[in-house]
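Example record

One chain of 304 residues, shown exactly as stored in the release files.
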Amino acid sequence: MTPLMDSTHLLVLSSAASPTELARLVQAKLPRELRDLVYSFLWDDKVMEKLDYQSHLSRPQPCPSKHCINNNVICLCTQPNTFPVFARPIFVGYPFAYEAIAWLYDNYNGFTLDGSVGVERFMEGDLFHVRLTPASLGLVRLRRLTLRADLGVEGDVPKFRPLQQNLAQLHNFKLRHDFALKLTFYVRPVAVRSGSCMIFSLANALETVEPAVSTLENDHGFKVNVYHAMPYHSALDVKHMLVPLNHGKWKKFMDNELERHIRRFMSQSLRGMPNTQRHIEFERLGFFIGVMRRRLQEEHAREH
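Predicted structure tokens for this chain:
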């Protein structure tokens, strides 16, 4: 059972004269269970929304500006404004900042990397300059990781090679036994309204990642979820579509799940359009789905 903070704890902490002293007292006087509660409170959703960790992975590694305080090397680099004070050793001391960041890597389930951000750079990056990375001590501390990839719009050539490389890089790390990976292929509103060949983009993406997903699950025992996401609507589970495009599953997927998913999306995203324009968009969508069905049927027939 997690102990509650009693009046003695509060009295000791209230005597702190500075943030550094307060952090020192938290480390010295509170048991680990209570410190974990403190860290879970500090790393709330608003802090994580502002953190923008992906954009700061390019910071110099290792820290080029150091100063030794109490036998701990403190980073003196200019810190991004989005970094919370409690993760900066210069304000709260090295032990508190280090433990707070370690708690984040051990417990936060929302780390998300876009296609252009390398898994290796994230795992080995000392983001906060405290000599701690997600892969410190030889074991990746993360419980969950999400990789996102844009399916592209009409005229674009989707580039799934970075995602493929990211999945391959995961094999280079020792992951915790309960590690879970989430792949999300997302579509921007313009891609749906333009009637682009989103299905073939999705099929190409799934075909690209299927070997890596199978290896992570079958050889390493990790859980991998795969989703197709559009704005204004919940993501659609597409893991069962990790099959060739000419497989009969794709026609069933088109006839049922995807068509309903897209129509619900369009009914919301086009709500502000005049009725005439909305009717045109739905007609284009229906034509697009019909063409895709015929192409799938033709490919399936050729195989058999």
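Notes: The chain has one domain: 16-245.
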